[in-house]
Amino acid sequence: MKRIFYFLLLTTLLALPAMAQKADVTDAPVITVTEQGPGYTVTVNGDGLLSVQVITSPEPGIESWVTYGVIADVQVNDTYSIDVQRNDVDNYRCLVKATAQADGKQVSELVVHEFTVVKFTPVPEPSILFTETDDGLEINVLGQGPVSCDISINGENIGRVGLPFFLERQDTELNIEVWATAEGNGLDLMPSGAYATYVLAPRLVADPPEFYVEYEFDRVVVGAYSIYPEGVVHMFFDDQEVDNPIALSRAYDEDNEYTLLAYVDVPGMQRSEMACFTVLVQALPREITATPIISYEEVLPADGSNYVLVTITPSEEDDAQIFYRYQVVDYGYSEYSDWMLYDGGPLCFTVFGRYQIEAYAIAENKEQSETVVLMFEVREPTAIQLYDFEEDGIFYKITADDKVSVCSETAVFNTYGGVVTIPTTVTHNGETYMVNGIADNAFRDCTGLTGVNIGAYVTTIGDCAFQGCTSLTRVTLGDYVTTLGKRAFADCSALADVKMGSGMRDIGEFAFSGCSALTSVTCKAATPPYLFHKRCFDCYSIATLHVYPAVLDSYRSTTIFWSQFSSIVAEDNVAPAAGDANGDGQMNISDVTTLINMLLKGN
Fold this sequence. Notes:
Blueprint: H1 2-14, E1 30-36, E2 39-58, E3 69-85, E4 92-101, E5 111-117, E6 121-122, E7 127-132, E8 136-142, E9 147-153, E10 156-160, E11 165-168, E12 174-182, E13 189-190, E14 192-200, E15 210-215, E16 219-225, E17 232-237, E18 240-242, E19 246-249, E20 256-265, E21 275-281, E22 293-299, E23 307-313, E24 321-328, E25 340-341, E26 347-349, E27 353-362, E28 372-378, E29 389-391, E30 394-400, E31 403-407, E32 418-421, E33 425-428, E34 431-438, E35 449-453, E36 460-461, E37 474-476, E38 483-484, E39 497-500, E40 506-507, E41 520-523, E42 530-531, E43 544-547, H2 552-557, E44 567-570, H3 589-600
Parallel strand pairs: 6-13, 31-34, 32-35, 34-36, 36-38, 37-39, 38-40, 39-41, 40-42, 41-43, 43-44
Antiparallel strand pairs: 1-2, 2-3, 2-4, 4-5, 7-8, 8-11, 9-10, 9-12, 12-14, 15-16, 16-19, 17-18, 17-20, 20-21, 22-23, 23-26, 24-25, 24-27, 27-28, 29-30, 30-31, 33-34
């Protein structure tokens, strides 16, 4: 045992000088410029953090409306790309400057690349040609290089068309708008456009008649009319000309669908096309079935196997069939079940959750009743023991042969109050267990909990573990805590200060949502922990994030939501010290003791 002690102490002390070695110089970044139609694409590749500045300026002796100056001044990781656009006024210069800095290395030498952005040469405006014939209008475009044509007819855009494009005459006047573009040939050419309009007169054909419907109690009247006062409308049913309007009788028990045809003759115009109209003549309504009644009974046996019995009864005067369906509404409305025939017995629901059930009745020779709706809930038992044993007022769940998690006494929560100290180990019935976790819901809704001291061996904090602890004001998580579950500290409205250790890796969704008083967040982790949702925190605009100076840029530029903090500052006392095994910010004999205990426990 003494040999292990001296070996660990020597290893800890020898680790310190290694931090003072001089870092290498980062390789210089590579700047690449690629020409493309609208302009140029500048790409900078390097190792680690890139500092890139792109500056444009006119060529000597040129002054124009083009705005010159710094168009990009950024810091990104590994690669950066920007498009520099051409103009049709003049050439101008572009200067790109870049350095790189990899982790643990010095800044590279400055790389400078200069190139000229060549202006566009305008393409001559294309010509739009309209050629009208007896049948319609031909539209074509002549121009330099590839040409295109977009057309709008009576305000409706029909989009890009092939050329030449032929448009047939219609029954109404057509107002045609044409947009044409000539692309030219070559990257240095600026496309040009042209616009023209044309009015195409309608063909002299009568518009077809319109139908109308009038509903009466025992019949439906269908007629047709023309927009031309002098026009004569002819209407047909079953290939026979009929009176206009025509009365269609309604029957009981059966809907009927009829199809009618009509055209109009107008002096001096061609006869209209045949118009077609389909009308549904619904059956005469019968008496409506009486609405059923839904009731339920909540059954709460002593053994906790709660269930709900639902009964559906028709009215006394109806010998009706009843149909029902239901859905679960716990997490937003799910899909309904299929409609099912109710057999007269009570329906038993045993799965915990909130439900919505619907039912209707239908009797012979009657219409279907109204659909009735009922909400009910199958509640979870109010007192289910969650723990395996209790010591000193703390409840534990055995998770392995020698490990336990802190949990709640029952599913009702609200077990703990005051200041709770979670030990590193706990002994029960002669067995010693390492306390390495805080279970889901362990301290949930413990509104009297004012403080918690978390043992050194705790590595995970479960879902909703401290949710709703409204009297909790500050929390410190040791360096061994690696994972926070979803909503772990959600709705802790008095929580103002959170400190996370160097081992933190994953923070669940909404972990600190609803913490409206949170103004200080400290994270000792050298790599920004993964945030599973952008609302892991709600305090981005009011809280200050404290991190290790060497990783400040990592937190500011990370894409996993840390960069949303409006204030991110570096503090030297946040740095995880080499050899600080127990996370107390000092290196002494207690760190060696902690390492020995970890080895003996198999960690």
